[in-house]
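quick q for whoever's on today - can somebody do inverse folding on this one?? i tried earlier but teh output was garbage lol. tokens:
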């Protein structure tokens, strides 16, 4: 059985979800590695594409499920105020 970690969701304050720790930590490291430190940042699609090169193949074979994990990490890091989202469309993200 894999170890779990609780994550937050900026869209559901106060609610947490438990996810696989190893996959979360790998996806978090990959997202933080590719996001720029300043606005205007990058779109989620750009971030997802860039993350694939930073993910371990044993956890994400062929980039499998990277979209779901990118969104999970994005919402958690937004809730923790470690990344920011542009106030209006299109969605753009950057590290705080």
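ok took a stab at it. sequence:
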């Amino acid at each position: 059985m894999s170890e779990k970690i609780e994550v937050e969701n900026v869209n559901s304050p106060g609610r947490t979800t438990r996810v696989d720790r190893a996959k979360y930590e790998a996806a978090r490291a990959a997202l933080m590695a590719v996001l720029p430190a300043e606005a205007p940042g990058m779109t989620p699609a750009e971030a997802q594409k860039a993350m694939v090169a930073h993910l371990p193949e044993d956890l994400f074979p062929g980039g499998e499920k990277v979209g779901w994990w990118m969104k999970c990490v994005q919402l958690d890091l937004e809730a923790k105020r470690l990344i920011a989202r542009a106030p209006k469309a299109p969605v753009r993200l950057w590290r705080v």
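fwiw The mean pLDDT is 96. also The chain is about 40% helix and 15% strand. so keep that in mind when u check it
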